[in-house]
Amino acid sequence: MIIMIVDIIRQVIYLLVLLKVVLSYFMDPYHPFRQSIDRMIDPLLNPIRQILPSVGRFDFSPIVLIVLVEIISFIIKSLLS
Length: 81
Hints:
Elements: H1 2-26, H2 32-51, H3 61-80
Helix pairs in contact: 1-2, 1-3, 2-3
């Protein structure tokens, strides 16, 4: 049961990060839908951005967040099974 919840949370975070990245290219930053996605994901990305600054126009924090979520998910599932 807990493993399923961990998987769902992992997938939701992954999809929200992916949606944030895609919307950043096509949607106005002041659009209400984009702002709501940003409010959900930016608290997870901001600590990574403080450690890993963007390189030119590229922001690698979404990739780092996805990798961290995968690692944490793997560790939790390993401990529970």
